[in-house]
Every structure is written in C-alpha cells, then in structure tokens.
Backbone:
C-alpha cells in the first residue's frame, strides 16, 4: 500500500527534523534517501521534484512541499491534536514558529558556512577565515538558547515541548560537530539531553537508519 506521505531525506541532514515531525504526529509515510554526499540532490529525477536541489522534500496528496518550516506548519495544521507546535494562543504558535524560522534563516546558513566554506569561496586560503567568523556568530546566536532556558524552563517555549526544540537540537548538534563549544552553557546541555531523549527524535533515528540500511541492501521501503 502506498503511504500517505513520501519524505526525501539525506542521513544526518536537516531532513531529520521533518522525519521527527512525521513521527511526532503519527503520520503514515515512506522515506526516500537522497544522498547529498553522492550529489544525488542534483540528479534530474530529483530535480524534477525539487529544483532547489535540497532535502527535505515532503510529497503530499496535494503536491510537493520543501522547507522545514513549511513542512512543520503543514503537519501542525493537519494533525492539530498532536501539538507539534503549541496551540494555546496565536502568540504561543508564533513563538514556536519564530524559533523554527531562526533555525532556517540564521543558524542553518551559519552551519553551512562552518561545514562547507569551500562552497562559499573558491580559494582554500579563505576557508578558515569564513569558518572562524561563522563559528563566532554561531556561538553568539546559540547563547540565546542558554539565556532562554536560564529561567528554569524545560523547553524553549514556556508552553511546552514543540518541534522548535528538535530543530534547534539539530542545529546545536551540527554546530558542535563543526567545532562550536557549548560546555559553558549548563542549561543548554541539560535541555539537549532532554531533547535527544524525546521519543519522536529517537524513533526518527531508527527510521532513518532503517531507510539507509534498506537502500544499501537494495530494498525499496
Ligand atoms: N531552508 C531549507 C534548507 C534546506 C537545506 O539547506 N538542506 C540541505 C541539507 S541540511 C541540503 O539539501 N543541501 C544540499 C546541498 O548542500 O547541495 C530548509 O529549512 O528546509
């Protein structure tokens, strides 16, 4: 039977947030690996689906949808009972959306500069400067997480855990992999442990690993 949704992802990429969102709401979906390491985002068959040459891409009965923020909004509205975003008031929903937008528009581009300076400047001599400047900005930005959590709250939105926590988690993990220091922030470290233990996150890791293993074994899921 065909699943209701098809999600195109690359292992470890920001598509993790969309997989976690699908898990969170309990959607019926199939995963399709697009390996960025092998440049599969530029293959004609995928370009026909997503000319942006990026993951994630969610294919729905209405059509395809790119952008993590849009996918989050779409699932939130289709599964209101799942509380993917806080829904107590328009302000609560907007606050969670603000965190998601910060990830997409501020943190993710900085992470890209840290990890892929070679795609920002053709001269290798410039790469370390690009990386260091982006790392300093990333560290400055992430301090906001520590300041927000320092009032003792468990999650970024006072209204409760939301997908915003999991998108910021993905950004924090990527920032750390890129060399960003976070040990100086105790509230962030405790929040990170909580967010990593969230069932949507742990199930996402399992589904992602299964889909990669199936692809390696030549099995279509
Ligand atoms: N604004 C997009 C960004 C998507 C994006 O940059 N995805 C990366 C993976 S984390 C990608 O597909 N990159 C393709 C490439 O580097 O060629 C979103 O939030 O979904």
Residues:
């Amino acid at each position: 039977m065909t699943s209701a949704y098809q999600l195109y992802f690359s292992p470890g990429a920001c598509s993790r947030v969309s997989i976690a969102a699908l898990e969170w709401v309990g959607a019926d979906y199939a995963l399709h690996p697009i390996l960025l390491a092998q440049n599969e985002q530029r293959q004609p068959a995928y370009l026909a689906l997503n000319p942006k040459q990026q993951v994630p891409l969610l294919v729905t009965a209405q059509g395809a949808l790119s952008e993590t923020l849009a996918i989050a909004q779409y699932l939130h509205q289709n599964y209101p009972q799942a509380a993917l975003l806080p829904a107590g008031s328009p302000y609560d929903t907007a606050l969670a959306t603000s965190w998601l937008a910060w990830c997409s528009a501020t943190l993710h581009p900085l992470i890209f500069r840290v990890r892929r300076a070679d795609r920002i400047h053709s001269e290798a001599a410039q790469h370390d400067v690009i990386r260091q400047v982006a790392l300093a900005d990333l560290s400055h930005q992430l301090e906001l997480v520590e300041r927000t959590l320092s009032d003792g709250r468990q999650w970024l939105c006072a209204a409760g855990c939301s997908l915003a926590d999991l998108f910021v988690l993905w950004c924090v993990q990527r920032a750390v992999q890129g060399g960003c220091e976070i040990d100086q922030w105790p509230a962030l470290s405790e929040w990170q442990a909580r967010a990593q233990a969230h069932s949507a996150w742990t199930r996402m890791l399992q589904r992602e690993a299964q889909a990669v293993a199936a692809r390696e074994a030549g099995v279509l899921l």
